[in-house]
């Protein structure tokens, strides 16, 4: 388990973009930057900056797959932090911006396949 303090955790959450990212990552086990960019309708540099803050706070873990970086909730996240994120995600379901993010992500599920295919062709695994 990560030794995440309440102060570090709550500071990492103190932004609507980061809350939107976390809401999606509570619902989906892993998302790539391209999926988050499309789902939130924001520029990739802005998404990456917020992901870096969450990663540095040990809320998220990343892994590189070809050209793409995939993010998930940190597997060693404290149980209290996991529970808090789940409650925040449940509370967000009534707000239109979070509903729209979820709808857009569901509509672009094919992007994950596109990301994977692009990575394979660039690494020579697709042929």
UniProtKB/TrEMBL annotation:
GO MF entry, a single one: DNA binding
Keyword DNA-binding applies: yes
Superkingdom of source: Bacteria
HTH arsR-type domain boundaries: 1-92
Annotated Pfam families: HTH_5
PROSITE patterns for this protein: HTH_ARSR_2
GO BP: response to arsenic-containing substance
This protein's UniProt keywords: Arsenical resistance, DNA-binding, Transcription, Transcription regulation
InterPro entries on file: ArsR-like_HTH, HTH_ArsR_DNA-bd_dom, HTH_MetalResp_TranReg, WH-like_DNA-bd_sf, WH_DNA-bd_sf
Official protein name in the record: ArsR family transcriptional regulator
Organism: Thiothrix eikelboomii
């Amino acid at each position: 388990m990560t030794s995440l303090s309440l102060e570090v955790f709550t500071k990492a959450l103190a932004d609507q973009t980061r809350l939107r990212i976390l809401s999606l990552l509570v619902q989906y086990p892993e998302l790539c930057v391209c999926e988050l960019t499309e789902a939130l309708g924001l520029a990739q540099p802005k998404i990456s900056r917020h992901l870096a803050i969450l990663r540095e706070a040990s809320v998220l873990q990343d892994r590189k797959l070809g050209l793409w970086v995939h993010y998930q909730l940190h597997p060693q996240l404290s149980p209290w932090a996991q529970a808090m994120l789940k409650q925040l995600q449940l509370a967000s379901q009534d707000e239109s911006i979070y509903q729209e993010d979820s709808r857009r992500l569901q509509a672009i599920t094919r992007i994950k396949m596109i990301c994977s295919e692009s990575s394979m062709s660039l690494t020579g695994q697709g042929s």
